[in-house]
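Ticket reopened. Same input as before:
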Amino acid sequence: MREAKAWIRIARSHDIPLREGRAVKVGNLEIAIFNLGDRFLAVDNRCPHKGGPLADGIVSGAAVVCPLHAWKLSLETGEGLNTGCASSCVKTFRTRVEHGVIFLELSGDLLKAQESSGHELPVMCVEPGGIAIANGSRPAT
Amino acid sequence: METSHRDIFAVGECVQHNGICYGLVAPLIEQGKVLAATITGNKGPKYQGSVQAAKLKIMGVDVFSAGEIGDKLDGSEVIRYEDPALGIYRKLTLKGGKLVGVILVGDTADSHRYMDWLRTAKDLVPLRRQLLFPAPTEDTGIDVAQMADGETVCGCMGVTKGTIIQAIHEKGVNTLAQLKECTRASTGCGSCAGLCQSLLKAVVPEFEEEVKRTICKCIPVAEDQLREILRSQQLKSVQEVLEIYGNGIGCEICKPALSYMLDMLWCGDHDEDRSARFINDRVHANIQKDGTFSVVPRIRGGVTSPDELRRIADVADKYRVPMVKITGSQRIDLLGVKKADLPKIWADLGMPSGQAYTKGVRMVKTCVGTDFCRFGVQDSTSAGIEMERRFENLFTPHKVKMGAVGCPRNCAEATVKDIGLIGQEGSWQVVVGGAAGKKVRKADLLVTVETTEQALDAAALFFQYYRESANYLERTYDFVERIGIEKVRKETVYAPDAAKQGLLERLRKSKERSSDAWLERDSPRHPTQFVQIKPLEEVFA
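Engineering reply: fixed in the latest deploy. New output:
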C-alpha cells in the first residue's frame, strides 16, 4: 500500500509566541506547535501520562514540560526525559515554514483515520478582535 | 593602640604598627582586644603584630596565603609541591624549624593547620614528613578529629575547637546558624563555615548540612545571592538572566521563579515574558486535570451581593459551567471552563480576578466582626476587605492567604493564615506564618497595636519583607521558621524607620504598577493568548 503523506498549512508563524506552544485542531487530532525561535516543532497535544495539554507547558530548550504533572518530553524525538517512557513516547510531526506559514506533515494512516471520522468536534475560530469563540455548542455530556 | 594623643586610640586600617598596615578583619579583632583591655584599665600583653592571612577565591580558584611569602628570607628553606593537573600548589617557608609563611592554591582545606603552626610557632622538626599533608589517620574523612581543642577554628572571632564542642554539648547547638549565634564562629569572613560544618557533623548525630538553596541546576547561584546579582546588574528579563548566569535554557522550575524575582525586584517594571510563566499565569485561571480551567472572582473578605451572585449564576448557566463550588476561602469557584471562554466569562462577571491560580495574594477570610456579631470587638470585616484591597494583584513567593477576626474566638481562623489580624478589646494582634494545609502551624505574634491602620501597616511590612526575602515557593510558615520570628520582628515592625519606609515604598511602587489580570480580556498580551488556532486549510472538508 502506498504511504500517503500530505503537507498542510497549519498556522501562521506569528500565531505562536516565542518559546510558547499553541494547540491546533486538525479533525479529531489536536496538535501542539511550539516556536523555538529558529524552528517550529510539533507533537500530539496529549501528554502520554494523563493526557495533559502539552501546548500549555513551559518550553525548556527543545523539550516541553506538561503543565499537569511535569512530565518532560523531547519535542524532537517525543522521548520522555524525566520518565521511564521510551522514545517516541509522544508522537512528533515534521514541520516547515514558508513565507510565514507553518506546514505540518500528516502521514497516511492519520489522514485515513481523519477521513472516516470527519470533523465532528467543534472548531474554534479567531474573531478580528483576537478572542476565540466556539462555532458550535458544547457537546452534551 | 595608643597614639600621640593620650585621649585617642586607634585600630584597624588607619593604623601602621611596626611598619605594617593591617587591612584584614582578624588582626583588627586582635587589636580590638588589646584596646579594650587598655581602656578598661586591665592592661595585658602588648599588641605584637598579627600573622597576616588571606583566604580568597580568585577566578574560581581557592587561594590562601599567610605569614612571610617573599622568596628572599635569610636562612629560610622553602618546600614546594605542585600538581598542575589537579591545579594544586603549596609552598611552605620554614625558618629554624618553624613555619614562617605559607601559600596554598587550589585546595585550602588545610589552611587552619598552617595558621595554627604560624600562630603558635610550633616546632615542626618532629613533623618534617607530614608538612605538606597530614599523616593518614584511620578515618581519613574526619580531619577535624585531629585538631587539638585549643586550635582556632574561626580566626576572625577567635573561636577554638574546644569552644565549639562545648557549645554543642552544653547549649544544644546543632545547626550552623545556632553555632553562629552562640559562639560567633563563622560570622566574620565566613571562610571557616566548612570547618564548622564538619565539626557539627562529627559531633552532632542529627546534624543536617545547610546547603545554600539554589533554584535548580539551570542556575548554579544561591537564591539570595541571585537576587543581589539581578539587582546590581540591572537585569530585567528571564532569558537574559538565563543566558548570563545560567545554562541559557531554563526549565519549568527556574523560569517561574525568575519571573517572580524580576517582578518583585523591579516593582513590576521588568520585561514580562509570558513564556517563562506557568500556564495559570498566562491565562489567569487554574488548569484542571482535563485541561479546562477554574474561575474564581475576587470577593473581598468573602462579602458579596445579590447582584454579584446573580451574575455568577448567569455566567454558570450561559457557559454551562459543570460545577459551581463554594471554596474554603469564602469564595465561589466555577470549574470546568474552556480556555477560549475565559475572557468572555470575566467580562460577563464584571468582577476582578481572585488570583486563585497563582503564587500571589489569594484572599482575606473574615468573620462578621462588629456589624452583626454579639461578641465582635473589632470591625474585622472592613479591616479584612481593606487588607485584601491593599495587597491584591501582587505576586508573592508562594500563595498568601490571610484572615481577619473580630474577637479571639477566631471564627475565620486567622491564627492559621499566612497573615492574620486578631481583634481584641482596644487592640489588634497581627500574627504571621500560620498554616492549615500540608502543614498545620499556629501563627507567631508579630506585634500588638491599637488601631486598624497600625495593624494594616504591620501586615504590609511583613508582607513586603516576605516578598523580598523568602525563597521562591517558600510559604510564610517555612519562611518565619527559617528566619525566626525575633529576626522577622527586628526587620519589620521594629526595624529602623528608614528600613520600614523602604519596605512600604517598594510595596507602594509594586502596587501602583499592578493591575487586575482579567483586564487582559480587552487587551490580550498576544492575539492567540486564549485562542485555539484553526488550521489555515480545511483538511478534511
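The first strand of chain A starts at residue 5 and ends at 12. Chain A has a mean pLDDT of 80. Please confirm and we'll close it.
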